[in-house]
Amino acid sequence: MSNTQYGLNAFTEAGELTEGLTNLTVGAPAIKFLKSCAKLLQEATVKRLTEEAAAEGDLMQYGNTRGDPKFRIELATFLTKMYGAPVDRDDIMCTAGATHGLYTLCTQLFKAGDIVFVEDPTYFLAQVIFRKDCQLTMVPVPTDDKGMDMEALDRLMTEYKDKGVTKVSEKRPYRSLIYLVPCFHNPTSRCMAPERCERVVQLARKHESLIVCDDVYNTLSWIPKPDGSFDDPPQRLFAYDKKTDTDYKGGHVVSNGSFSKFMGPGLRLGWYEAPARLHTILIESGYLDSGGGFNQFTGGIMGTAMEMGLVEKHINNVRKYYQDAVVAVCQVLRENMPKGTKFHEPQGGYFIWIELPEGADVSTLRQICMDEHKISFLPGHTCSPEGNYQNCLRISFSYYPKEELVRAVTVLCEAATKMVQQ
Length: 422
Hints:
By secondary structure, this protein is an alpha/beta fold. The protein is about 40% helix and about 15% strand. It has 14 helices and 13 strands. The chain has helices at about 5, 10-15, 30-55, 70-85, 100-110, 125-135, 150-160, 195-205, 275-285, 285-290, 295-305, 310-335, 360-375, 400-420, and strands at about 20-25, 90-95, 115-120, 135-145, 145-150, 175-180, 210-215, 255-260, 270-275, 350-355, 375, 380, 390-395. The strands form three sheets. It has an eight-stranded mixed sheet with strand order 2-9-8-7-6-3-4-5, sandwiched between helices. A three-stranded antiparallel sheet has the order 10-13-12, with helices on one face. It starts with a helix and ends with a helix.
């Protein structure tokens, strides 16, 4: 059956994947991986539901508030291998994806007018959640190649200390929120330097703030080892908030993960790696008390898929595929972008951040590409709370086959060169 017989997906519904358009804005898995995901979940579903039918059918019941036990056990094992660092199953709580995870923390722990510090640039749709949905006061913090500027963050947190939560409590233990994408950042694909990871945890403790890490790209890493295999990704920020530290104050970091980027966003499945006090706040909420654990059924199926080794095999194929695509696209950029253009070749994630020469108008370039070539991309200023990065753009290498990416990026380079030279 065709897609239209079931209904449109989010991109076709929004007119972002029309016939003939190559939309390099789209940050979603390639179609070939959605199909392989469907096949492996079909296999896992048959196994798990056969087991459930022979037992008491607990997977169909209101779920454990932290998620299906098999899911949490297998996810901890899977992530320990992917991260190359221990993950404790007791820190894990199942969510309905990273967007749900972020929104839930915003609404359970903060109120309209509270402060959220964000990187500039940052994930463009997170801005909508903060400003429009949760009505938080968003404070942009400058960044460089090593991540968020820690001196600027400390200064701004001191300045805004009395403008958010003025009195912490057991139910609201944080004065403010810090939103980060520390590993393979969206939109830049850069990783926060270790010394800044250490410093931001110190500042969160000092200013009684919660750091929520959008950790959706960590497992999509292809940092090479000398033997050609993949090395571990940079250490996630959650691991810097050590319970053994003398100044540990109950936990100030949440790793907000998702299966959307390496399996399928339609699953709406993710997880928190979070301190015990946050587990308690969420478990005691009416939200979980009424409905039970988030995404119980899909979590259970995914737990079985991980137990069977299907997910690890799948993600290794994804990483090799994207590594190959990035090498090809970056070669095109190096050979064809106008003089003075800056970018770096990512070793993980979904995106390439391109900085054209100063004065270049990316909005004009996008209009030219749309009108003359039916190619689109994300203008950099949409990723900035203050409309900065007018000469920057983000392209995604995740959705289209390598051959189409190379064609589209070649045309983009030619259009950019022509515009800059005029």
